[in-house]
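Please check this one:

***
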Amino acid sequence: MRSVHEKSEDCELFGVTYLSDVERSNSQVNHHEPCTYNQLKTFIDAVKAYTGKSQVDIVAHSLGSSMASVLAISDRWPTPGSSSATC
């Protein structure tokens, strides 16, 4: 994405959804799962690796807002492959 403002730096926009088709169609099963935090962490790590940056800005909505907030303040990430990180 290129900014329309003169002399501004280029920026990139990445998007992710962590809900399956079933979860998107049935809000009763949309809740915080440890594996979902791991999916978000993996995505954020991939964006940081791709951009070479040490941090990213997150824009989130609804359930994603609280999940992003927890990831931002927590030093306890689910371990890939652990029972707490699998759906």
Q: What stands out?
A: Helices lie at 21-25, 34-51, 63-73.
